[in-house]
Specification:
By secondary structure, this protein is α+β, with helices and mostly antiparallel strands. Helices cover 31% and strands 14% of the residues. It is built from 13 helices and 13 strands. Strands 5, 6, 7, 8, 9 and 10 form a six-stranded mixed β-sheet that branches. Strand 7, helix 7 and strand 8 form a beta-alpha-beta unit. Helix 2 runs antiparallel to helix 3, helix 5 runs parallel beside helix 9 and helix 9 packs across helix 10.
Length: 512
């Protein structure tokens, strides 16, 4: 791994622009239609970030028909590496310099069901050998007092290893995997969240109607997200066409119910959950992570809208809360990217705001009450619909910030297997949104000396809780789903390192 990493550093510097584009892999790729010559490549464990097969792209979207994110594919192409080769290594009898490790394997397509050509791989790892490898690592005292682990062959759905698989533990942010599956099941991958401006007849009342899109942006460069500026421009044009240059401005947040404040209280990890906000109610220019949040996101969004209308020659009153009637005429609207893009951004960045909104959107779509409890109930109902194991499972929210959440390792691996099932292509972004070890999202700075590019996983961290769930390609090129849950941990960094060592060992396993 060290040799490969050192060998590729000069090339990484040479392709900085491509890497920068890949670092923003979760940005929407609206109306992007790609057609590339079919070719197989893989990103080595310390090089391009993933080991997947590229095939002809047949539809627009943030992932191609092999399940690989297009930005990751572009990065691998830029690095000009072929899968499973000894990238510039020695010429020993095995293709490597004497004493050096074998090159990283090429992986079969994550999503052969979408049309990717699968490689021939060896049989799944032997359960006894896998237990001998993982059991000692999972006994590390750093992993606390409560533990659950599951490893499943994604191709067959067969469990290869498990300990405490049915023990319901606090999952932290791995809850977002369940939220993603539920939302995609309830609404479909192409669903969009719409914000609109509606004019009440005979009143000159203009209502800004929140559609529950936390990614609505007021920034000059919308970067493909729904733009409040665009909405204001189109609304002003429609008003002036109707001969109106002065209106009463209101805002409507009635899509959601209940308290906007998470049970944990005000927190820089999450804005008040309002059906109307811009830029996740962040008061700085950040797009992920913690930030100071507005305490009145809807009012702030309406005031921004008023200022934008004024710049377009339309003046308004100071905005106040209201509800658009069924008679209101929609003058303009803007919509988020497809749900697949929101899911990818949520998983890659562990975005709590998107998670809580998707939980409530799932409730709205299924007729449940759109508050924290209703969102949790709606998630559970959708997972039950898919036949997933829910014994002992409880959803108190959609993000995993609530310590009352309970998930099992069995459920987490079952979710990942379901997302890879050819019968459920609508769930594919659950896999493609997972952070890539050593390269993207919450795993960017992890696995730099281990299974970089081979592990793709959702992290979970609360005080006393550490979790990791995702997919890994083992040495034989076999795709596995895994989930490791630990509670009662006392040292966050030590627990995180223990989980990383376990996932790295799984990646290096030639246990067939």
């Amino acid at each position: 791994m060290t040799r490969l990493a050192n060998a590729v550093r000069p090339r990484l510097a040479a392709v900085r622009p491509q890497l920068a584009r890949a670092a923003n892999a979760t940005k929407p790729q609206v109306k992007r239609l790609l057609s590339v010559k079919t070719q197989q490549f893989a990103a080595g464990a310390a090089t391009a970030g993933v080991a997947l097969t590229a095939v002809v792209v047949t539809a627009a979207g943030p992932w191609d028909s092999s399940g690989q994110r297009t930005a990751e594919r572009d990065r691998a192409v830029a690095l000009e590496h072929a899968g499973g080769t000894d990238h510039g290594g020695g010429t020993g009898t095995s293709g490597t310099a004497q004493g050096e490790p074998e090159p990283a394997p090429s992986a079969s397509s994550v999503l052969a069901g979408l049309g990717g050509a699968a490689n021939t791989v060896k049989s799944a790892p032997d359960s006894q050998a896998l237990a001998g490898l993982l059991a000692p690592l999972l006994k590390d005292p750093a992993l606390g007092t409560g533990r659950g682990a599951s490893v499943v062959d994604i191709t067959t759905g067969k469990r290869l290893y498990g300990t405490g698989t049915g023990t319901a533990l606090t999952p932290a942010s791995t809850t977002k995997i369940a939220t993603a599956v539920a939302a995609l099941t309830a609404m479909g991958p192409d669903h969009r969240l719409t914000t609109r401006a509606a004019l009440e007849p005979d009143t000159r009342e203009l209502v800004l109607v929140g559609g529950g899109d936390p990614t609505l942006t007021a920034r000059e460069d919308a970067e493909g997200w729904a733009s409040l500026r665009e909405l204001a421009t189109e609304t002003a044009a429609a008003l002036k066409k109707a001969g109106l240059r002065e209106v009463t401005l209101s805002y409507d947040t009635t899509l959601y119910s209940g308290s906007e404040i998470h049970p944990i209280g005000a927190d820089p990890n999450l804005a008040p959950v309002s059906a109307l906000m811009t830029d996740e109610a962040r008061t700085d220019d950040s797009t992920s992570g913690t930030a100071v949040r507005s305490t009145e996101p809807a009012e702030d969004a309406a005031e921004q809208f008023a200022a934008l209308l004024k710049a377009e020659g339309v003046t308004t009153t100071s905005p106040g809360p209201s509800k658009a009637t069924g008679r209101a005429e929609t003058l303009a609207e803007v919509s988020s990217p497809p749900l697949t893009t929101l899911v990818e951004r949520m998983l890659t960045n562990s975005d709590n705001d998107i998670a809580e909104h998707l939980a409530r959107q799932t409730a709205v779509a299924t007729g449940a009450r759109a508050d924290f409890a209703g969102g949790g109930d709606a998630i559970r109902a959708q997972l039950k619909k898919l036949g997933l194991p829910l014994t002992g499972v409880d959803f108190a929210d959609g993000s995993g910030l609530d310590r009352d959440d309970r998930l099992t390792a069995n459920l987490l691996t079952s979710l990942l297997v379901k997302a890879a099932d050819p019968a459920h292509p609508e769930l594919r972004s659950v896999l493609t949104g997972l952070p890539v070890a050593g390269f993207t999202g919450t795993l960017t700075s992890r696995y730099t000396d281990g299974a970089a590019g081979v592990v793709r996983a959702k992290t979970g961290t609360l005080t006393g809780v550490n979790s990791l769930a995702g997919t890994v390609v083992d040495r034989d090129g076999h795709l596995l789903a895994f989930a490791f849950l630990a509670s009662g941990t006392t040292d966050r960094n030590a627990a995180q390192s223990a989980l990383d060592r376990t996932a790295t060992a799984l990646a290096g396993c030639g246990c067939g």
